[in-house]
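Hi all, posting the design record for the shared folder.

TITLE: backbone redesign
STEP: 1 of 1
STRUCTURE INPUT:
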């Protein structure tokens, strides 16, 4: 199967699937405000599952997690799970029913995380658009699973500890912006799509910058491409 044929096949299937969502019944816009207390948490596992819509995540919240979700399809009401006992908090926000957004359908998530809690962040993104500004968050790991959406993962900041990044591409597009003044080692394996790397030196089967190996802080990146396009910028 050629790259062009595979891309056309997948896009065609998505278009056919989208016809069903013309029958989705919308209602008035509803806003769910989210405010999860920090309590004694020192470590957070944050998982977001967005089937379709728009997502923005940034740091800077005095809470463990705060924000608002606007939607006008009742079946898309988010399910929030917060298990915050002791020093570890497990937080999950999931879109109850997945679907393609479009027309007058709205599903917008605007969330902020605490900068000072060690965070494992995980996003499953279907057909939505996600802007992740996580450079100021104290990260342990970042994992992104893409579908047909578009993801801008901005990690530019001044991390004080090592962390890992894992991105699995789908049909969509992803841009990964990495921090400077730290060591970076990236492995990038393409599927039928394309992966471009800017600002790193290729060394055998991986990419590094000049600081890797001597820097006090290192970021390890693993990218598995799909049919879409992935850009790594360091």
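Okay, here is what came back for every position:
SEQUENCE:
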């Amino acid at each position: 199967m050629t790259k062009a044929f595979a891309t056309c096949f997948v896009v065609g299937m998505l278009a056919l699937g989208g016809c069903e969502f013309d029958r989705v019944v919308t209602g008035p816009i509803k806003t769910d405000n989210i405010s999860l207390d920090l309590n004694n948490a020192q470590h957070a596992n944050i998982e977001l599952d967005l089937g379709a819509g728009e997502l923005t995540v940034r740091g800077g919240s005095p809470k463990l997690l705060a924000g608002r979700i606007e939607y006008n399809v009742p079946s898309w009401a988010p399910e929030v799970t917060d298990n915050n006992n002791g020093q570890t908090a497990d937080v999950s926000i999931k879109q109850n029913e997945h679907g393609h957004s479009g027309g007058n359908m709205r599903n917008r998530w605007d969330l902020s995380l605490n900068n000072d809690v060690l965070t494992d962040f995980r996003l499953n993104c279907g057909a939505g658009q996600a802007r992740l500004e996580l450079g100021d968050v104290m990260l342990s790991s970042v994992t992104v699973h893409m579908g047909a959406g578009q993801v801008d993962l901005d990690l530019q900041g001044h991390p004080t500890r090592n962390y890992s990044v894992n991105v699995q591409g789908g049909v969509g597009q992803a841009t990964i912006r990495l921090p400077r003044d730290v060591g970076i080692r990236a492995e990038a394996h393409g599927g039928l799509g394309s992966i471009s790397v800017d600002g790193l030196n290729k060394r055998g089967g991986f990419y590094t910058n000049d600081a890797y190996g001597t820097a006090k802080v290192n970021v390890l990146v693993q990218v598995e491409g799909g049919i879409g396009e992935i850009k790594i910028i360091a």
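COMMENT: The CA atoms of residues 188 and 210 lie 18 Å apart.
Let me know if anyone wants the other runs.
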